[in-house]
Amino acid sequence: MSKTTRQMELMTCIDSILDKLRLLVPQGDLCKYDRALNELKVELGLVKTFLLCQWKLGYSGGDLEDSVHKNGQQFYSLLLRFKDDGLSPSDLAGSASTFGDILKSSKQQIRTSYVCDSDSLLKSVDEDRIRRNTRDFETDGFRRYNWDRKMYPSMLDRLLASSSSLTDEFMEFFHSLLENFVDILNWGEAYDSELEKLLEPLQEKLVFLKNFILFARSQGKQERKLMEHSGVVALSAAHLCHSCWFFRDDNEVFVEISFKIDEVKDQIKPVVEQVRLAYISILESKSSSLRMSTEANMCIVGNFVGSLLGNLWEFLVKCPAWFTSSLKHQIRILCEGLQFLRGILMKQQEDYDGLPGGIKDRIVAVVNDAGIVIFSLYQDNIREASAMEIDLKLFCLLEKIKLVNAEIEKKYPVASRSKFPTTNALELIDLLLEKLKELESCEVDPLFSFANDRVDFLNSYLNKIQCIKVDRPLETFTYYDMPSWIIDLEKQIRLDKLRHQKMQADVPFLTSFLEKNLEQHIKNEKHQLQTMEDDLVSLRSLLEENGEQHNHQEDPHALRSHVIEVAYKAEFVIESLLVGDISFYSLQLFDDIAREFKLVKSLAQEATKIPRHLTSQVRSATSGASYQVSSSGSIPTVDKAEVVLQDVEQAMIDRLIKGPKQLDIISIVGVAGLGKTFLAQRVYRGPRVTSHFHIQAWCCISQTYCKRDLLLQILACIDQKTQFSEKDEYQLALELWQRLLGQRFLIVLDDVWDIEAWNALKSSFPEKNNGSRILLTSRLTDIIGTPYHLRTLDETESCELLQKKLAAIREGGYSEEQNLLGWKIAKTCNGMPLSIAIISGILATLDQTGWEEVAKMVSLTAMVGATEQCSSILELSYEHLPDHLKQCILYFGAFREDSDICVRRLTWLWIAEGFVQKSESECPDKIAEGYIRALINRSLVMVGQRRYTGEVKTCRIHDLLHVFCVKKAKKENFLQLVRGYDEDLTFDEPYNPRRLSIQAQPKHFIKSRIICPQIRSLLYSSRDFGVRQLWCNFGFIFLLKLLKVLDLENISLGSDFPRELWSLVQLRYLAVLGWLKNGIPFSLENLSNLETFLVRTKDDVGLSLLQDTLLKMKKLRHLHVYGALIDIRLANDNLESSSILNNLDTFSTMKLYLGQHMEKMIRKFPNIRQLKCCLVESTEYTIDSNRVMVMNFLSHLESLKLNLGKVTMHCVELHLPSSLKKLTLEEFSWCIISTIGKLTNLQVLTLNRQADGEEKQDSQDMEDMEDSEEMENMEEEEFFPKLKFLKLKSLKIVRWKGLGHCFPSLEKLVLDDCKKLQKLPSRLGESPLKLIEVHRCSYLDRKSFEDIEEQQKDYGNVDLKILISEEIEESFSWSDVDSDGWLPEENDESSSWSEIQTDGQVNDHLP
């Protein structure tokens, strides 16, 4: 029925209110009042859907219509006044609550109506079905009944009918229902996660149904059955959606609704046979229109493809037993093909508008066939022959997709999606040769085996197609008089005929495949593998002759690109074969690639015939000879070469400390690259600032942000120990407000892009007139707060900065001509510190000719604007990088913008990715550290934190460089970054990335559908601190069998490792999180290529790992377990005969059992460099057992952390190697001090907690350290000759007197929680001290420091800093752990105080 004028007016009123609310709430103007408006938006939308349903069924809304209309008009007038007349947010929220209460008063009435409507509709459907089945027995009666239905249509007819050709009231009702789901899910995300979990799966099914209906209509399919099915489902869903919201606090009703939601979902799924057959018959029916001439139709088909991918994904993660490996592999390829088609239809319409109509029609036909194949897969049990038939049909479908793809790229040629300009073609061919040899070493040729198994089946299948006969449709009856069983038979015959025609169309392709592919592989086992290897060796020789390996600028780009493209295709198919992915498709692809290599080889042969003098003419001569800046040795001080704007810095500090009592907002504004964050960090870490504020927190916002993430960032700075996983957004805001209440706080909001970020957070910052401050950095000049406009450097400052940078990079100095050129270059950099810093990194690698070229380029870009010029300089710097460093710098795009990155983690990832060149003389970790130094030398990477030994602990890049890396990596198909929630993780270009970095909330990652068969790396990160217990079904991992890097450290695996993990045999790097109460299974040994294994688990969980399993991991280099000890004492009987892990470099945290097997176990890691372990007593251990720990044979060991607290008698005799540079002892005995004092290379020492068993004895001895035997020995000889850093924590010392010849090199002393300590030894003043930090040592005599300070001055040291803090809060400090929370590293040599003290220099110093 059509709507009356009054009904149309009411709907206009409702839509106007909803539109206003949707605009108003996301703006954040209402802050704490937005919950009431959100609830009203949901409730009014639900009432709208109900009214549309009633009107469609021919009923009236009665009093409800009048009430909604009257109160809606009143509320709408208030909405209009909110902006114009200054109506307060509280008044608007109050009116929204009142209006909401009126709507709630009708909830029972609406629920009852829905129940009655559903019952009546089901009855109408049954009657309609009976009528169709019995009409041949009552012809006259049927005619009268049909006439009556036209006059008095049934409820089903009323629901599905349209009042005019211009409107479709049923789809209007369906669309309103889907909007209800969106509104409730948005509300649930913020306030009720259980509601969100319950409704989201049903919403997805309804979206699929809507897309199916629209697709069927656009193609002129017979849709009556689909519409009947959809009508019943939609009415049930509307009822459940309404009840789920209005009765969400009624547990009994809520449980009942949960069961009914499952029933409705099952009605939509193709799992039910009746539903599956109906879906297939609709797609198999003849189309009245295949044209896709309009943009709207393209969107309809694209949306249907998206829904097919959703169905396919759901099916894949619950893969049935009857799936063959071939079918699994081809399904993954189908996903790739559908994603490609969806990208064309949805995201590239402008580019593909010019496609001929024939191609568009073939796209639709392929999508239609894909739907048939996908729905056919939804069967519980199926015979092997039927499964193989589906496999063949899927193969034919993949061929059609491939042909469509080829037609599109022929019409619109694009750069290869596998293009890797930073990849050396010779190295890639070498890698392929290695893979081919590995494939040849298999006992059975997988290609031969598969072909042999399938050739007979394909022959019989082709014969069966030829024998099929389809009867002609019956034509003896007129349609009107025809009995229903004959009509059904005729329809079935027509469908069978269409199926047979499609099968016949596939015969030529399958016959060709049988003869040219399958039968050829059967004739000669491994012949094709050997032929491809020979062609690759020949091709490599030709490329080397062409000078490919010398200069990528010189070689013919077309040939090189062709080689790389084919090589990457070959890598995919060969690695697929190695992991067991053999299918019709992969066999054909192997043969296609073999032919392509022959073609490329012939092209290379032609290229070698070109005279040398011609090829030399195209060589690039744009840069002069390069100067190689060393990347070995220690990190230079390039990061400390800086020019500080002291005037701005001091003014800002004064404003923070001496400003008004009320909450004050200060903003640092300026263009990108000017040094806003750099200045904010200096101020934030300055001692005057840190001592003034009770609480400090740093929050990086950037362009894309989520309010929840921002709240979690700030709370994590205040309290790292507390978990906030169960709190919703409103609770988090309240939590932050309460934490800050009564405290003088400084909150830095870095990189603010719009005022909405501030609006989202401002209600969480209490105003209590105690001098609290908000410090913002932004590129917007009109952002909130008192602005400090950061100026550019003047010419003198610009030149000074360039000179400092260049001097720090290259010790040899520069010629006078170069200095003059440098002065000219600096003056044309628009006073931008970032541009100058990057330019210095370029210049340091070039000779004078190169400097002249750079000067010319910079002068040409000087007029385009500072930011644009900076971007050009970044591009120039990138082009001057060697290939291996190009990959390394682009990899920074995988990490969060403005984040500090753990260097060890970064280098391990580089090694796993294959970026680090192999060397027989140097370990890959050392080479990777050299890459870091090289990038720092070029001012592309900034130093974050350092270890006391000088090593870089964390690093970061500027946000402009991060933007550059993300764009360049995507363009070259090197890496794809996905932020937030991207439905189905669909991509524009490239459509199938090799590396994928996802930065999203855990719940969004759980919902993501990662279907990328060629992906090699998957990294997931989240700022959603504390939500790590969320876990998901990891069945999707089998889709990613070629993974080399898998980082799931921010999403929980649950209590067990997923079995799918052990099928990823190519993995080199694996990082996981979980409770993992059942330990690490023996299946780990399947990952024979694994090099880095990182595990985070709960503190109270002990992980066990079979010794035999560990010792089979011959390539393992880094094994770290954080949150638990790893027990590997099992299977000691085989210890002597087991393998030795020569490659193991770092290991934590291992249980070592005192006894005869301990030394044997340690000897299994002869080359280990870093080790953390806990010494425990085995069950067979007695008081008379050996108490000696021998490790002096570990000649490479540099860092050792040893906990002795689980040994009852703590005086263990230690034999440590002289190579040790860093040592941490926990719960130790003083009897071992004389031993460690003789370690000649020890530079860092931490003593943490004395053994409990020594408490009484130690406390007596410590009354006078001169009575200590250890101290007497220390008087007689020199101890700790190279020690630079000493930390004493939680010791029971009272007086520390004797020192003797100890600590001649000591530079930093940290005393923490030594509550009884009263005095320091005076001879400490003889050590070359730079810093003394004291925390929580309340009895320590301050005169000790004065004496030491005087002695230092006598020795000429006037720079000694002494920092004393009586109380340090237990809350988290930004430098207390690794910035990205990755490695369980001790941080004894760095602390918050050492990082925030300044002497005019700080650690991360690129602006």
UniProtKB/TrEMBL annotation:
GO molecular function, one term: ATP binding
Biased composition annotated in UniProt, kind: Acidic residues: 1377-1389
Keywords linked to the UniProt accession: ATP-binding, Coiled coil, Cytoplasm, Hypersensitive response, Leucine-rich repeat, Nucleotide-binding, Plant defense, Repeat
Domain NB-ARC as annotated: residue spans: 650-806
Residue segments, region Disordered: 1372-1407
GO biological-process terms attached to the record: plant-type hypersensitive response
Pfam families: NB-ARC, NB-LRR, WHD_DRP
Domain Disease resistance protein winged helix: 895-962
Primary localization: cytoplasm
Superkingdom: Eukaryota
Coiled-coil spans in chain: 515-542
Keyword Repeat assigned: yes
Extent of Polar residues compositional bias: 1390-1401
Gene3D superfamilies registered for this protein in UniProt: 1.20.5.4130, Helical domain of apoptotic protease-activating factors, P-loop containing nucleotide triphosphate hydrolases, Ribonuclease Inhibitor, Winged helix-like DNA-binding domain superfamily/Winged helix DNA-binding domain
SUPFAM superfamilies membership: L domain-like, P-loop containing nucleoside triphosphate hydrolases
Cell compartments where the protein resides: Cytoplasm
Occurrences of domain Late blight resistance protein R1A-like N-terminal (ranges): 152-405
Segments crossing the lipid bilayer: none
GO cellular component terms, semicolon-separated: cytoplasm
Family: Belongs to the disease resistance NB-LRR family.
Function, as annotated: Confers resistance to late blight (Phytophthora infestans) races carrying the avirulence gene Avr1. Resistance proteins guard the plant against pathogens that contain an appropriate avirulence protein via an indirect interaction with this avirulence protein. That triggers a defense system including the hypersensitive response, which restricts the pathogen growth.
Name of protein: Late blight resistance protein homolog R1B-23
Species in which this protein is naturally found: Coffea arabica (Arabian coffee)
